[in-house]
Design goal:
The complex is a heterodimer of chains A (250) and B (452). With 250 residues, chain A is mainly alpha-helical. Chain A has helices spanning 6-52, 54-59, 61-74, 84-90, 95-114, 120-130, 140-148, 178-186, 194-201, 205-217, 237-249, and strands at 117-119, 158-162, 165-169, 191-192, 222-224, 233-235. Chain B has 21 helices and twelve strands. The longest helix of chain B has 22 residues, at 189-210. The relative contact order of chain B is 0.07. Classes of the chains: A mainly alpha (250), B alpha+beta (452).
Chain lengths: 250, 452
């Protein structure tokens, strides 16, 4: 292209640049769209293969590892057994085991946000999202059944009821760091309220109540519900005593 | 030893599993196997070991590492020139099953190799264990015929080439837009567009071809893995640069979530099919190797159920049941592995490092209760929790164990449970009132009298 002087030339060049840019953007957009489409095909095909040919894939170790690699790369969950008749009736087969793994995985992934306490309904929705192909097939009852299969591995995973809601707790008391945070919080005044815990640590109400209840059970906290403002206070004699009693002695 | 020289040695993990090469995959294994060669004096004495077949090697590991002098060693499948079919005769029905293969050794007979002047010797595999030797033989033949090790060499030597040649893996598209900007004026816009389209069409076609049936996918597996990797990279770079579409973000976050667990993959999971009777034993060793990293991330103690999930995720479609996992963990007591299973009274089970064991915790508790302040007022579970950096319930558990060992004694008061250092072992039964000049007892007297 010959460069022409003058304002008209500049305007032309700018217009051409704009055109190129527009075209480039278009191509880029089409490219992403196409890739998404192909990725979707790739994913759905992999999912279908994982379901249909599971046993054949497992027979060939070399292919199996390649298959897993593909699944990992494009983000396909290789665990996709259908519930099937026998699983429904007797609870046998891989379905509930696979569901169990997926449930624990979701609990693990959401633990940073919720401290290992998740609403059963929310959990169920996330499982359904994972298993897009048979949406709706996984019920809350299925989740409960899958969780009960994990009982063999100790009591670290349990379903608790808070009010009408059912919550799944994936962190055992022994490993729960939430309690430490409450204790730290309580050090200031010697007591905390549910509201305070929720506000200061930005937890959900279920999480705070559950942690405080456990501390009550453990004998670390004492409840005082006779205060003037009508809010329950959880006193922690264990944290306050060192500072207060020693202070009084001096 | 001769074994070290003649056959290449094999590196073992801390739990006694072989360290596999990249792309190498375990196929089958047999226990109590002898390898012998009559023709060759330099061939090492390999008696009753574990024979593991992979896509690349035959690995022999001594069964009890302490008694044998020979180290774990391997025969590369590439050095095997022929596998004899097993003879069926009346005698073979009574003797231990055996099969033979031909191995090429270097001219001086000192090592495995196929250089000029190499000759062949016959090696016999004698199976004294109960394993299914026929199935093993079948797998052995398959792996040898598949010659996976050859494709490795090709890929590594000309990885950049093969991408261009194969083309169907969507060619050189990874740099597509970036290079096309440079060549924009020369090739013409329509040229680029045409090239783009061709590329997508070919990708589409290869996808269609590969997913016709299982056999097609198997033969195209490598190509598809490359394609998957490319898509993934593009997807990730796409989400980074274009922050517009919400769908992209959703994809990205999902990817992240799965990365988190799937990143530590086990290429050769121990299965009932490959390991047979040794299933739980081998699973136990593999689990011990695997659990090290998650355990480190979790700070030395990890819930057994978390391990169940992470381990199964790493195994892909080869799920193990909770019962199998528990059995694998309980076998650890028999092996020398750096991890252990711990059960709490509450029924919770965790896996912890042996170094994270009671002794270390006791030592820390002891220093905690012998400080001047705590000598006087004792410690509660929450004090211990805050200083040791563990949950109060766990701290209480530790304190109670320390009490049962005689390190602490308890005091139950309106303040709740408090623990003090146990001074009774310090007191001499012959002179109850005599106090030693040094020791915890003396420090305790000093500390308590100072406060009054």
């Amino acid at each position: 292209m010959r460069r022409r002087p003058g304002i008209g030339g500049l305007q032309n060049a700018a217009a051409a640049r704009d055109q190129y840019r527009l075209l480039g953007e278009n191509v880029a957009r089409i490219r992403t769209d196409l890739m998404k489409e192909q990725l979707t095909t790739f994913r759905s095909q992999l999912e279908e293969f994982a379901r249909k040919h599971k046993n054949d894939i497992r027979k060939n170790p070399a292919f199996r590892s390649q298959f897993h690699e593909m699944c990992t790369k494009v983000g396909v969950d290789p665990l996709a057994s259908n519930k099937g008749f026998w699983a429904e009736l007797l609870g046998i087969g891989d379905f509930y085991y696979e569901l169990g793994v997926q449930i624990v995985e979701i609990c693990l992934a959401t633990r940073p946000h919720n401290g290992g306490l998740i609403n059963l309904q929310e959990l169920c929705n996330m499982v359904r999202q994972r298993r897009k192909n048979d949406r709706g097939a996984v019920s809350e009852d299925d989740c409960l059944r899958a969780i009960s299969k994990l009982k063999v591995l100790g009591s670290g995973f349990e379903v608790i009821s808070v009010g009408k809601k059912k919550l799944v707790r994936s962190v055992p008391t022994e490993l729960n760091k939430d309690h430490n945070e409450i204790l730290e919080l309580a050090q200031a005044q010697g007591f905390v309220t549910v509201n305070e815990v929720e506000r200061r640590l930005s937890w959900t109400s279920g999480r705070a109540t559950d942690a405080l209840d456990t501390l009550l059970e453990e004998g670390l906290a004492m409840i005082d519900d006779g205060h003037r403002d009508g809010k329950c206070r959880y006193w922690f004699p264990c944290v306050s005593s060192i500072s207060s009693s020693v202070g009084a002695d001096m | 030893m001769a074994a070290g020289k003649f056959l290449p040695p094999v590196e073992l993990t801390t739990s006694g599993r072989p360290v596999l090469l990249p792309n190498e995959i375990e196929c089958s294994l047999l226990s109590s196997v002898d390898l012998e060669s009559d023709e060759l004096p330099a061939f090492p004495l390999l008696k009753s070991g574990l024979l593991i077949l992979t896509t690349h090697r035959l690995i022999w590991i001594p069964e009890s590492s302490s008694t044998t002098t020979t180290a774990a060693s391997a025969i590369p499948l590439s050095a095997i020139t022929h596998i004899f079919s097993p003879k069926k005769s009346l005698r073979s029905m009574f003797a231990s099953p055996r099969f033979r293969f031909q191995l090429s050794v270097s001219s001086d007979g000192r090592g495995v190799g196929s250089g000029p002047g190499s000759r062949s010797v016959v090696v016999t595999v004698v199976v004294r264990g109960k394993g299914d030797s026929d199935a093993f033989y079948g797998k052995f033949w398959e792996s040898w015929r598949a010659r996976v090790w050859e494709s490795d060499v090709v890929v590594s030597s000309s990885s950049s080439n093969s991408q261009l040649v194969s083309g169907s893996g969507s060619g050189s598209d990874s740099g597509g837009l970036y290079t096309s900007q440079g060549t924009l004026r020369m090739a013409g816009v329509s040229g680029i567009l045409r090239k783009e389209q061709e590329m997508w069409e070919s990708t589409d076609k290869s996808l269609q071809d590969a997913f016709q049936d299982l056999n097609a996918l198997m033969s195209k597996a490598k190509e598809m893995v490359v394609l998957a990797e490319k898509m993934r990279l593009k997807l990730l770079s796409g989400t980074n640069s274009q922050t517009g579409a919400t769908a992209d973000e959703e994809m990205g976050s999902k990817q992240e979530m799965q990365d988190w667990l799937l990143s530590v993959g086990i290429a050769s999971p121990v299965t009932k099919e490959t390991a047979g009777a040794l299933y739980h034993q081998q699973l136990s060793r593999q689990l011990a190797d695997f659990v090290r990293i998650p355990l480190e991330k979790a700070g030395g103690v990890i819930n057994l159920i978390d391990v169940y999930c992470v381990f199964n995720r790493a195994r892909g479609t080869e799920l193990i049941s909770p019962e199998d996992l528990l059995q694998a963990c309980s076998l650890w007591e028999k092996f020398d592995v750096p991890v252990m299973l711990r059960k709490f009274d509450s029924g919770v089970m965790v896996i912890q490092n042996k170094s994270h064991s009671d002794e270390e915790v006791f030592a820390r508790i002891k220093t905690l209760v012998t400080k001047p302040d705590t000598l006087r007022s004792g410690i509660s579970a929450s004090d211990a929790a805050m200083t040791l950096g563990i949950a109060p319930a766990m701290a209480k558990e530790h304190l109670l164990t320390a009490e049962s060992k005689g390190i602490l004694c308890r005091d139950i008061s309106p303040d709740g449970f408090r623990f003090f250092i146990n001074l009774f072992p310090e007191i001499d039964p012959n002179g109850v009132y005599s106090v030693k000049e040094y020791g915890i007892y003396a420090t305790w007297i000093k500390a308590t009298s100072a406060s009054r």
